Amino acid sequence: MSRRDQAAGEVLVRRLFAEHGAALLAYATRVSGDRVAAEGFVRGTLLRARADPAALSEDRGAVRAHLFGVLRAVAGLPSGSLEMLDAVGTLPPEEREVLNHLYFQGRDVKEAAASLGLPAETVKSRSYQAMRRLREAVAAGVSMGAGG
């Protein structure tokens, strides 16, 4: 690997960590129950993702879904997690973003609303719709699209 490729890879890993690291770490910690192990899983995920930059050129939600798939492989996370994350991938982007703030980043409705620049009622509504869609998607085997 050339110095230029190595430098580009390091920049990519830093960008991915800045955009997705908190969500990956929160999820890995939650399912593994071990913060130190979760940090290792996230490092491994980002290093493995660096090897396939073409998969990281899509929209932010698709990149995050890809990274969570890599994380599951790196950490050996249970398949029920896979079904739920696949279901999250079927959500409209605005609903995924609300869930990201509420569940992966651990914000309450007021904090998520402020961060997203939305009224709290909109955050609540999107969260409700997202959870309804997730229940339906998981029950249907994650076969539904974002259109519902």
Report what the structure shows:
By secondary structure, this protein is mostly helical. The protein folds into two domains: 76 residues; 65 residues, Arc Repressor Mutant, subunit A (Orthogonal Bundle). The chain has seven helices and no strands. Helix 6 packs across helix 7. The protein is globular.
pLDDT averaged residue by residue: 81
The residue fraction in helices comes out at over 70%
Question: SSE order, as H and E?
Answer: HHHHHHH
Number of strands: 0
Count every helix, treating DSSP H or I runs of 4 or more residues as helices: 7
Main sheet characteristics: none
Question: Rg to the nearest angstrom?
Answer: 16 Å
Strand content: under 5%
End-to-end distance, in Å? 45 Å
Main structural class: mainly alpha
Q: Which stretches are poorly predicted, pLDDT < 50 over at least 5 residues?
A: 143-148
Total domain units: 2
Note the overall shape. Answer: globular
Keywords:
disordered C terminus; Arc Repressor Mutant, subunit A; 2 domains; 7 helices; 76% helix; mainly alpha
Give the helices and strands, then pairings.
Blueprint: H1 3-32, H2 35-50, H3 60-75, H4 79-89, H5 93-104, H6 109-116, H7 120-139
Helix pairs in contact: 1-2, 1-3, 2-3, 3-4, 4-7, 5-7, 6-7
What's a quick, concise take on this entry?
The protein is mostly helical and 148 residues long. The chain has helices spanning 3-32, 35-50, 60-75, 79-89, 93-104, 109-116, 120-139.
